[in-house]
Amino acid sequence: MRLFTVGPTEMYESTLVEKGKQVPYFRTEEFSKINIENAGMLKQCLGAEESTEIIYLTASGSGAMEAVVMNCFQQTEKVLVIVGGTFGKRFVQICEIHGVPYEAICLESDEELTFEKLQSFAERGFTAMLVNLHETQTGQLYDLEMLGTFCRENNMLFVVDAISTFLCDSYAMEKNGVDVTIISSQKGLCLSPGISMVALSERMKKKIQENKVCSLYFDFKDYIENMKRGQTPFTPAVGIHYELHDMLLRIVEQGVEEHIKEIENRANYFREKIQMLPVTIPDFPLSNAMTPVWFQEEIAEEMADFLRNEKGMIVNPTGGEVGKRSFRVSHMGNLKLCDYDRLVAAMGEWFAMRNNQT
Ligand SMILES: *Cc1c(COP(=O)(O)O)cnc(C)c1O
């Protein structure tokens, strides 16, 4: 079995070893040290300032997205949300539930977010921008520099859900003036699902201290206070913190840019190879994390079934109506170029079989 999915991903051998261990008791110096070291390595991988705060939440990425909106914004503000797919819509839903006024920049499923489109929302009194930098439903990777510049020029706080771009595409938190970066364990980090990390800039940390949050479990003030001793307010998913430590040591040793290059190579290799098949990929800028594969007919589900049942290869279905004509192939995880040879061969086999039938 091979996972070509965006999360969980095909895990590395050493992660599986960590996963198999007895989970230790956690209110210890030893566990505090793991958390502090992890925070340091995460900041390095994010290109974040030393003063950036990292907090750990026991929640999937959506939990972290919601917690960020609850802690960082109030009902007196007006935020701008980029909505290019289902993850953008999730930010909108969260703003509605928590009564945070918002406006959305809505994109069609094949539409690129251009400078002109963004510029039409300039000087409209927004206090912040919320964006899923890689909109994982469509595969579009927005231009971080363009968005960062827009926020700076319009005096807006800048919140980035980087869940499916972190460790797959270059990312520079400080350079682009990002105030909040959200990441999660099961995507580019290739770990078990269950924890999310939030990186907070100095000015966002200050703002959070002044905001009142109606939540016991998700009050960031408590997390920030506890991180002074390398701990979390409540029992974390201890085992995943150890998986994280193992993975970060590996990536930092390899070099983040080297690691990203490896993912980029896989993406380019696959995109080149599928050109011999009757499929297309979108024109807009793509993340290295995955490739959306578009079919001319409504065959995506049937082919995905064939790949799973006959070949043991799991591709990622696409949500919604577009899912009939498209699935997604991940380049994250413990995958090699030969895995893509096998996948493309199997896809070719399916097309050949189908041609013989008609
Ligand atoms: C995966 C993902 C999330 C989190 O989804 P969960 O199912 O809550 O883990 C959030 N944003 C983006 C862009 C994602 O790709």
Q: How would you sum up the global shape?
A: globular
Rg from Cα: 21 Å
Q: What's the count of strands? A: 14
Described by strand count, sense and barrel closure, the largest sheet is:
7 strands, mixed
Task: Give the class from helix and strand content and strand pairing.
Answer: alpha/beta
Q: What small molecules does this complex bind?
A: pyridoxal-5'-phosphate
Give helix % range: 40-55%
Unreliable sequence segments: none
Number of helices: 12
- What is the overall pLDDT average? 97
* Strand order across the largest sheet: 2-10-9-8-5-3-4
Distance between the termini: 30 Å
In N-to-C order, the SSE pattern is EHHEHEHEHEEEHEEEHHHHEEHEEH
Q: β content, as a range?
A: 15-25%
In a nutshell, what does this entry contain?
The chain is α/β, with parallel strands linked by helices and 358 residues long.
Which descriptors apply to this entry?
358 residues, binds pyridoxal-5'-phosphate, 17% strand, single chain, alpha/beta
Please tell me about this protein's structure.
The protein is 42% helix and 17% strand. Strand 3, helix 4 and strand 4 (102-106) form a beta-alpha-beta unit. Helix 2 packs across helix 9 and helix 9 crosses helix 10. The chain has helices spanning 13-19, 29-46, 61-72, 86-97, 115-119, 144-153, 202-210, 220-227, 238-254, 256-273, 300-311, 337-357, and strands spanning 2-4, 53-57, 79-83, 102-106, 128-132, 134-135, 140-141, 157-161, 180-184, 196-200, 279-280, 290-295, 313-317, 326-330. The model has no long low-confidence stretch (mean pLDDT 97). The strands form three sheets. It has a seven-stranded mixed sheet, sandwiched between helices. A five-stranded mixed sheet has the order 1-13-14-12-11, covered by helices on one side. The protein is of the alpha/beta class and 358 residues long. It contains twelve helices and 14 strands. The structure holds pyridoxal-5'-phosphate. The site of pyridoxal-5'-phosphate (PLP) has 12 residues, from helix 3.
